[in-house]
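I hope you will forgive my troubling you with a question about protein structure. I set the record out below, with my sincere thanks for your time.
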Amino acid sequence: MAELSIYEQLSFCTSRIETEDANGNSYSGTGFFFNLNLNVNDKIVPLLITNKHVVKGMKKGLFRFTTADDDGLPNYKEHFTIEYSDNFENMWFMHPSDDVDLCVLPINPLIEAANKKKGVYFIGVLIMGLFQMKFKNSLLMQ
């Protein structure tokens, strides 16, 4: 597999988040993928992190992901979506402080939904080390 530039690695660590409120108004934002290491039996929890204002009051939400080509590289022209159409806000865990505009979504259900779709998908994941940020390319396959 060809080496991706740092820009490409970072761009695939994100997902477009499209939302809709109860009145049918549409909005969009961005979330980034992060693997949280619980330091218990090498347990990793994959998360999508975004701002509270992206999901607050939203009833519907849609995530966009990039597909991968036969070589496992990102296919810049093809994407797939996963949509949630009921109580989108309630899926997220909000930071307890009103002063911190962050929330997280454990994405195991997104990964399971992606695996049910036909094809191969390309995302990058941020992994926190002791003093450095690492990038890991993940292919979600059916």
Notes: The longest helix spans residues 108-116. The longest strand covers residues 26-37. The two ends are 20 Å apart (CA to CA). Confidence is low (pLDDT under 50) at residues 129-142.
